[in-house]
Amino acid sequence: MTIGDLDPAALWLAGALALGIAELLVPGVFLVFLAVAAGVTALTTWALPDLPVGLQLADFAVWSVVCVVIGRRWYRDFPVESDAPVLNEPARRLRGQIVTVTTPIIGGEGRARLGDGEWPVRGPDTVSGTRLRIAHVDGGTLLVEPIEPEA
């Protein structure tokens, strides 16, 4: 018995199963879409048993693209909610924090303490000891602004 003697629908179904198992073992979400495409191709070859191999591969390719496009849309429409939405965006995490100027800001540049470290800062000219708010981060430089008094 050779592989050519096996039912094409069974081969595609086995491929779908193998891709599904691989999805569980490999980090990320991608192989599941190919597994669905292989499953649909299995149904196609079961309904049309005399479908040539070239058309089976074309069917798999088309369904792969369709599944990936639908999957990407689905993941974009249903983002994962998190209690730390900016966990992997350190620059965004720094915005709004308060720093204390350690080296006076002269000509728009100076240094300030944030936590247990000192950072280069750019902002309005200010004397040492002044507290400022981080408005933005540009590379390794904090862009600071005066703290607005609470009303």
Number of helices: 4
Largest sheet: 5 strands, mixed, barrel
- The quaternary state of the protein chains shown equals single chain
Overall pLDDT: 88
Please tell me the total number of domains. Answer: 2
Total DSSP E strands: 5
Strand residue content: 15-25%
Radius of gyration: 29 Å
Shape: rod-shaped
| Biggest sheet, spatial arrangement of strands | 1-2-3-5-4
Distance between the termini: 84 Å
Order of helices and strands: HHHHEEEEE
Secondary-structure-derived class: alpha+beta
What is the helix fraction of residues, given as a range? 40-55%
Transmembrane segments: 12-41
Domain NfeD-like C-terminal: 93-146
Main location: membrane
Protein name: NfeD family protein
Overview features:
151 residues, 5 strands, 43% helix, alpha+beta, 2 domains, OB fold (Dihydrolipoamide Acetyltransferase, E2P), single chain, rod-shaped
What does this structure look like?
The protein is α+β, with helices and mostly antiparallel strands. It has 2 domains: 3-77, no CATH class; 90-146, OB fold (Dihydrolipoamide Acetyltransferase, E2P), CATH 2.40.50.140. 43% of the residues lie in helices and 23% in strands. The chain contains 4 helices and 5 strands. The chain has helices at 8-25, 31-47, 53-77, 90-94; strands spanning 98-106, 109-114, 117-122, 131-138, 141-146. It has a 5-stranded mixed barrel with strand order 1-2-3-5-4. A hairpin with a 2-residue loop joins strand 2 and strand 3. Helix 1 runs antiparallel to helix 2 and helix 2 (31-47) packs across helix 3 (53-77). The chain starts with 7 loop residues before the first helix and ends in a 5-residue tail after the last strand. One of its GO terms (cellular component) is plasma membrane. Keywords: Membrane, Transmembrane, Transmembrane helix. Its main location: membrane. It is found in: Membrane. Pfam families: NfeD.
